[in-house]
Amino acid sequence: MCKGLSLFLLLISCTVHAEPWPGEQWPIGATITDTGALESYAFPPRDDTTRIGIRTDALLIIRDGQIIYERYAGPTNAQTPHLTWSISKSLMATVLGVAYGEGLFKLEDPAAKYYPPLAKHPDIKLADLLHWASGIDWQEDYEYAPLKSSVVAMLYTRGHRDMAAFTAEQDSYAAPGQAFRYSSGDSNLLAAALKNIVGPQRYPDYPWTALFEPLGIHHAVWETDATGTFVASSYAYLTARDLARVGLLMARDGRWDAQQLLPKDWLGFNLKPFAGYQAHQDEAVPGGQWWLNRAVDGAASPWPDAPSDTFAALGHWGQALYVIPSEKLVIVRYGDDRDGSYRHNELLKRVLKAVWP
Q1: Which end of the chain has less Cβ packing within 10 Å, N or C?
Q2: Which pLDDT does position 17 carry in this prediction?
Q3: What residues does 311 pair with on adjacent strands?
Q4: Roughly how many angstroms between the first and final C-alpha of the chain, as a whole number?
Q5: How far is CA 215 from CA 82, 106, 218, in A?
């Protein structure tokens, strides 16, 4: 009788303390009640005529695997696969992590082994591409210098049919692995390498079979260029709830329920600051195609009001997936910010205050 009672109590304890995981739908937790300061920043009156100011399309907050806040604006709703822009880079890194777990490549492998057009740059390793440290000369400018922009040429003009080949044709400015220079071209070289890493038969479905389907993501869209290579730099579309699943995977050390989908050493690489980065080169510290809230070179952390373990996938015009493991938080913010007024730290500060008043 005592043994039966002990087993019963153990089962109750395990049930009570089990981690919530989303099935087809996300569990709903205790919602935030005091949202005034958060919403006054994230959702000010929206100007769709001039597109001036902060223009949030979606804000979703997950705590311990449960939705505690969700709001949409503009044309976006919970069923809208939103353009993620450069969050796509972190998504490709996550897809590559599954292939890494299959033992299909090593970080120190020459990138040209999997993408032969990189023969012009034989010393570039896959790890260098993941660090945006290929040494390939690249100008990541959009509105400010479009005529000199490598990324505009790659996405929209002479490079758009074969984006990886366009990148591989560029000259070098530094030795691979030595210097950070943010490059959408590096990310698209990773997408081209993946084609030979997993094989051309698996490649067209691989992001879905490797990542999206195991996470319960059923409506993702990922555009390719004319060669059938995923545009890893820019063109993945997910709903806010689906992107949050990727965040929860990362927050829980690459584990999805009982499955270790990403090897822990892969996450260790993703979340380790690149040694060649110098303070203030970008808005946060680069890891392996993720952005880190870490202090380097004596500089303050990029988001001083957020915990140091905060990391993010970030995209043009205010797209963001923030992960704060120590607070069990995943935050998705989609936007249409055109004037640069949005600040990551300000949103994170207000989210944390709303969650833990």
Answers
A1: N
A2: 53
A3: 292, 323
A4: 46
A5: 18, 24, 9
Q: Which domains does the chain have, with CATH numbers?
A: 27-85+239-357 (3.40.710.10)
Tell how far CA 93 is from the center of its chain: 8
| pLDDT value at 16 more than 50 | no
Q: How far apart are CA 318 and CA 123, in angstroms?
A: 34
For 43-138, where are the alpha helices, taking DSSP H only?
87-101, 126-130
pLDDT (tens digit per residue) in 322-357: 999 999 999 999 999 999 999 999 999 999 999 987
How far from 74 is each of 12, 80, 127, 285, CA to CA, in Å? Answer: 44, 11, 39, 31
**The 56-63 sheet, strands edge to edge:** 66-72, 56-63, 329-335, 319-324, 311-315, 291-292, 285-286
Residues 249-281: tens digit of each pLDDT: 999 999 999 999 999 999 999 999 999 999 999
Nearest by Cα to 183 from 145, 226, 231, 135: 135
Contact 55, 214 (CB under 8 A): no
Residue type, 173: Y
Residue 1 banded pLDDT, cuts 50, 70, 90: very low
What is the pLDDT at residue 142? 75
φ, ψ for residue 52, nearest 5 deg: -95, 145
CA 256-259-261 angle, to 5 degrees, is 75
